[in-house]
Design a protein that fits this description.
six-stranded mixed β-sheet, Rossmann fold, four-stranded mixed β-sheet, alpha/beta, 10 strands, globular, 393 residues
Length: 393
């Protein structure tokens, strides 16, 4: 097999694996040539290390309680699909050794076809994934507009008394995103709604943690993007492992791996390639092809880090390590949380006024239910200039 060089796009002459010294290398892992078997062990070890707390020895016996439940958001991208594959292997190994597992998964795909007509319904893709990994736990496809099932997640977005009386969730979501002033604002609010929906689903299904498929590359993108958008204060809560502001743990088992490493991993032919299950890859490439003034901050950071992670992986890792050194202060509890994103805020949001002079959360009587001082600066900027929308009759 021809060697794939992660540190550049060039094809190099095949050499022996530096770890086993027996098989031809297929990957140049940063500075080390590895064969497919050693590369597979490397990827698995990084994930298993982060899942140490969910070994069978730390799980209560089945006679006492049900296995611990963990929610895995599946976008059908390279990272989340790889994470599902690795966790399936871990569960199979636990069963083979001890006849029981340390956890079960609730795999959830968020269907965003309500706001993007080009996105195919997720049921068919989810069935294909479930056929490949039938024993990991439950599989769910939840529409993005289902976030309205959790009032606390969308209360701050309800503009006017009519918005709080219910109605068609799909139309409400489309109206909300359509009222925002820029592509960056829409992508930002969309990410917030998605995160809050996943956190709500995790609590609804009695899960103790959410397992995000974020790689080192993705965490670096998020660190700089959120800082640029005005949420630098909350970066520790968005990128670290542990308790989140949403009342549930957030974990990142792939945080020690680069996205380019996973891109090579899913293309390996042994034992079975994962790439056919990455239904969201083509959509992602199209999504981040935008250039010019219409590009969002998130897209810009994605393009930047995907461009440098091959030749300069240490830069990507240093961004994440630096963010990991930030500590959460007890004063955050005193300051409070942003009413939109739900993250700790720095108190610098200021008062938000919509174009028509209607304050966010103001009812028809003019009574203000909240003001901009309840928002972080990032959310205040995202919804600043949003136009009020009329509910369909």
């Amino acid at each position: 097999m021809t060697e794939q060089n992660i540190t550049s796009n060039e094809t190099t002459v095949s050499t022996l694996c530096k770890r086993c010294s027996a098989s031809p290398s297929v990957v140049n892992l940063r500075t080390e040539h590895l064969c497919s078997n050693c590369f597979d062990k490397y990827i698995r070890s990084k994930c298993i290390k982060r899942m140490e707390a969910y070994r069978v020895r730390y799980s209560p016996p089945d006679t006492d309680t049900s296995p611990r439940r963990l929610l895995l958001p599946l976008s059908f991208g390279i990272s989340s699909t790889t994470l599902l594959h690795l966790l399936n292997s871990q569960l199979q190994n636990q069963l083979a050794r001890t006849t029981r597992t340390g956890f079960v998964l609730v795999v959830v795909h968020i269907d965003e076809s309500a706001i993007d007509s080009t996105v195919p319904p997720g049921e068919e893709s989810m069935r294909a994934v479930q056929e490949r990994f039938p024993d990991v736990g439950e599989y769910l496809v939840v529409k993005l507009e289902g976030v309205y099932e959790f009032p606390s997640a969308v209360r701050a977005f309800e503009m006017g008394a009519e918005g709080s009386r219910g109605g068609d969730w799909k139309e409400k979501l489309k109206d909300l995103l359509g009222a925002l002033p820029s592509p960056t604002s829409r992508m930002d609010v969309l990410r917030i709604l998605r995160t809050r929906l996943i956190a709500g689903l995790a609590q609804k299904h009695a899960c103790e943690a959410v397992l995000w498929g974020d790689t080192t590359t993705r965490l670096a993108e998020k660190t700089l993007a959120e800082t640029a958008k005005g949420r630098g204060f909350s970066v520790p809560w968005q990128t670290s492992d542990g308790d989140s502001p949403y009342g549930i743990k957030f974990l990142h088992p792939l945080r020690d791996l680069l996205k380019k490493e996973l891109a090579v991993y899913v293309s390996l032919e042994a034992p079975t390639p994962l790439h056919p299950l990455c239904f969201g890859v083509a959509k992602g490439k199209k999504k981040y092809a935008a250039v010019g003034k219409g590009i969002t901050i998130d897209e810009l950071m994605t393009q930047y880090f995907e461009g440098i992670e091959g030749q300069y992986p240490s830069i990507v890792a240093n961004v994440v390590r630096t963010a990991g050194k930030l500590v959460t202060e007890g004063g955050v509890v005193r300051i409070g949380r942003c009413k939109i994103c739900g993250l700790p805020r720095d108190g610098g949001g200021g008062e938000l006024v919509l174009d028509a002079g209607t304050k966010l959360g103001e009812g028809s009587s003019g009574e203000v239910n909240g003001n901009g001082s309840d928002m972080c600066y990032g959310c205040a900027r995202s919804v600043h200039g949003a136009r009020p929308y009329e509910r369909p009759s």
